[in-house]
């Protein structure tokens, strides 16, 4: 019998260890660009699947890098993992904005545990209410008090500027859904908005952590983010400080 604290601890331990593996691959494999990304995706996935099979043999897994085992739809507990989020940034060999995501979904409760590691920064965030001190590292330190809206560097939503304007802020591009969500947790940004495409594994662990830290997390129409669905496409999200929610959702709705 495991408790939720055990699951949160395991999520953190696995995200941290997979991140350490990815750092070693980046430093020692001699691979570059797409070959480096492919190696990282595959080995981090193998590591997470092996460890989950050993630690939680009765649970199912939904992973970006594995075939979808549809028996998860009848399961009580499903781990939703993205072994390497921000592959594009990881494979540069130098960028820090990539992450490992490990989340647990439970029947009747939704997301109950989650962890996001930022291996290049040597930190992991878990779905506890423990406060996080404001920290720099993913983005340049703030030079103005303006709120920051983080968006995809490669696929920014069309409403990015409108959201920034609505909160009197500025837009900041960053890779990786996990890194952007953790930028809000870390106080480096104030909102993360996305639209146009994403999958459950891109947001499950980040949303689990952000919700536990008291941040607003929803679809862009304000409806709940639902996980372990038959269709794993979950194309948009908003994560923000709660006092910004009405302005952010209102700007997107316009
Ligand atoms: N339009 C889109 N369609 C599908 N996936 C998308 C997407 N935009 C972003 N994503 C996914 O969301 C994650 C963060 O993207 P971004 O850095 O652009 O914000 C990436 O995950 P992976 O790196 O795990 O593939 C990326 O593939
Ligand atoms: Mg991803």
UniProtKB/TrEMBL annotation:
Cofactor(s) the protein requires to work: Mg(2+)
GO biological process, one term: 3'-phosphoadenosine 5'-phosphosulfate metabolic process
Pfam families: Inositol_P
PROSITE patterns: IMP_1 (PS00629)
Molecular function (Gene Ontology), one example: 3'(2'),5'-bisphosphate nucleotidase activity
CDD domains attached to this UniProt entry: CysQ
Keyword list, A-Z: Magnesium, Metal-binding
Binding site residues for Mg(2+): 64, 82, 84-85, 202
Domain of life: Bacteria
Catalytic activity field: adenosine 3',5'-bisphosphate + H2O = AMP + phosphate
SUPFAM superfamilies: Carbohydrate phosphatase (SSF56655)
Stated name of the protein: 3'(2'),5-bisphosphonucleoside 3'(2')-phosphohydrolase
Organism: Gordonia jinhuaensis
């Amino acid at each position: 019998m495991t408790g939720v604290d055990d699951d949160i601890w395991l999520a953190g331990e696995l995200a941290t260890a997979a991140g350490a593996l990815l750092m070693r691959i980046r430093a020692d494999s001699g691979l570059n660009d797409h070959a480096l990304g492919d190696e990282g995706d595959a080995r981090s996935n193998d590591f997470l699947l092996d460890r989950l099979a050993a630690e939680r043999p009765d649970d199912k897994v939904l992973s970006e890098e594995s075939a979808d085992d549809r028996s998860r739809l009848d399961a009580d507990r499903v781990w939703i993992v993205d072994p390497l989020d921000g592959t594009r940034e990881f494979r540069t060999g130098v960028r820090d904005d990539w992450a490992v995501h490990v989340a647990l979904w439970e029947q009747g409760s939704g997301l109950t545990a989650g962890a996001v590691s930022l291996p290049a920064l040597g930190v992991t965030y878990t779905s506890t209410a423990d406060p996080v001190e404001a920290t720099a590292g993913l983005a340049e330190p703030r030079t103005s008090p303006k709120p920051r809206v983080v968006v995809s560097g490669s696929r920014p939503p069309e409403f990015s500027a409108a959201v920034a304007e609505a909160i009197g802020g500025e837009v900041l591009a960053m890779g990786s859904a996990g890194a952007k969500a953790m930028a809000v947790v870390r106080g480096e940004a104030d909102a993360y908005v996305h639209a146009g495409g994403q999958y459950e594994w891109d947001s499950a662990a980040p949303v689990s952590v952000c919700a536990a830290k008291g941040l607003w997390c929803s679809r862009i129409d304000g409806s709940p983010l639902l996980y372990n669905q038959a269709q794993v496409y979950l194309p948009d999200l908003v994560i923000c400080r709660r006092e910004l929610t009405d302005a952010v959702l209102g700007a997107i709705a316009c």
